[in-house]
Each structure stands twice: as C-alpha cells, then as structure tokens.
Amino acid sequence: MQALYAYQQAVAADYLLAQDRIAAAFEPDLTAKVTPDRRLLEGQRKLGEAQLRDWQRTGEQPESGSDDKDVAEAVRNAMAYYQQMVQKEGTFYRGQLMHGAESIHDQYLHLLNMAPALLDIITEDNEREARRFTGPRFEAEGTARLFSNAAFAKLKENEQLLQTTIRRKLQWTDAEEIETLREAWQKEIKPDETVQAYLNGKNTGLEETDYETDLELLRHVYKSFVFKGEALPRWLESNDLNWEENRPIVRNLVLKTLKMLPYAADEKQELMNLSANWQDDRDFAETLYN
Q1: Model-level pTM greater than 0.90?
Q2: pLDDT of 259-286, one tens digit each?
Q3: Burial (CB count <10 Å: 0-12, 13-18, 19+), residue 268
C-alpha cells in the first residue's frame, strides 16, 4: 500500500506543478518595454487555474470558445504536462507495487528455507566441536532429534518450494545472514525451554502423534525466533525497509503454510500463495494507476 499512497502523493504534486506552469505563463515581464497589466495577468492566471481545476475534477475539457487565447494555450500546456507526468507516475508506481508484492512472496519462501538452513548450521557446529583439540564442549547427540524431525523434512522436500527456491535464488547463502541464524540458534533457540524439552524428549512410536510434536516445534521456532526474538528480526528489519509493514503478511503466509503440511501431505503439497489468483491481482494493480 505504500506504493499506492506514494503514487497519490506524486499525482497531487504533479497537479501543483501544472498549476505552477499556468502561473508562470502570466508572470509580469519586467523587461518589457510596455508596463505589464498586472490586474489582467492576475485575472488570466485565476481563470486558467480555475479551468485546470474543473478539468482535473470532472475530466471534461474546458470550453474552447474562450476569447482569451493566451489562457487557452496555458491551460492546454498545463493539461498536457499533467497527463504526461501522471502517465510516468503510473508506470513507475505500478512497477513498485508489483515488485513489493513479489518481494513479500519471495521473503515468505526464503523464510521457509530457514528450517533446512538451520540444520546445516547445526551440522557445521557439531562438526567443528568434534574437531576441537581440547574436545567438544557439547555432544552432537543433543541435537539429534532435530535431524529426524519429520516436519523439517517435509518442508525441505516440498517440490514447489525446491523449484521456486532455485528459480528465484531464495537459498540462505548470504554469509551475514547465515551468521545471524547461527547467533539465533546458539543464543536464543537452543537454550529455549521448549526447544530443550523437545531435544531431550523421545518419540512415542505413533507416527502421526510424533509428527504433530515435530510440527509444533517447527511452528514454535518460527513464532518465537523469526517473527519475535532478537537476532533474526533485527536482521530482517535492517535488510528490508518495509519489513515492519510486511511482517504480518509474511508471518500469516508462513504459519498458514505450516498448517497445510499435515502428516498426510507429501512432497507435492501446494504451498500458500500471496493471492489465490495472482494474475487477477496483477490485472487489478494495472487498473489502480490508470
């Protein structure tokens, strides 16, 4: 909606500039040999501005029968300028709106890739600890249950997510982003009581029951450490100027997607879309700026 608001403000500014062009057309020429008739010029300016205002309000062309050709020409020029600028604004902000919507969708899919990226980081940490000369400070077995988490696996193996991630390059590959996720894991996620209870717990042997436990843990990680928490929200806000505005939308998409991954879902499960009919939304966006 920021793009739509900015478009409206830009169009309002364009109208003021069009008015300025009329005012400039009737500025007294102080270098003229004949002293300008300031009262006449002021009247012409007001008439021109009134005609421009009526045209902008009603969309109807000013009457062409005016005896004052100077006013008629000034209004025509102002109208042409305004129309040209509004067309440019429409092209620019239409692109901004579509880009904004697509960036929300990309951010949502990118965050879905956080779960497998987290497992990669845990693997790196475990391997690094195992190589320590003085011995590991913690046992890799302490995180083993995450690697058998069926909800993590279902998300990672989703075909739509895999294909879109490759096509739009939505992997977690940025070094600073990876380090932020590592910080979140070490300082926030791993010490969390709910996470520790999960890591120290055991499966019941009932697949559907255990899957629900796995899925609940995944939801907890997103709710508490991606859309709340410290490290990841700080990173997201610093790298996306619109994050505060977009966060509720992205959060809704992520959490609804997790609801769409029940025990019975397979790798072909369709994920949430930003809109049920993206093409219709694109067409609607086109009309907003016409």
Answers
A1: no
A2: 989 999 999 998 877 554 445 555 544 5
A3: exposed
* CA–CA gap between residue 84 and residue 155 (Å, rounded): 49
Three-state secondary structure call for residue 163: helix
Nearest to 195 by CA among 149, 249, 158, 256: 149
The domain locations on the chain are 2-96, 113-288
Cβ-contact 105, 99 below 8 angstroms: no
- Please give the structure tokens belonging to residue 225: 């450490």
Neighbours of 179 (CB within 10 A): 13
For residues 235 and 37, what is the distance between their CA atoms, to the nearest angstrom? 63
- Which contacts qualify for 229-238: CB closer than 8 Å, 24 or more apart? 229/184, 229/188, 230/184, 230/187, 230/188, 231/180, 231/181, 231/183, 231/184, 231/187, 231/188, 232/114, 232/180, 232/181, 232/184, 234/180, 235/176, 235/177, 235/180
Alpha-helical regions (H) of 142-242: 144-147, 150-156, 159-168, 175-184, 193-200, 207-221, 231-239
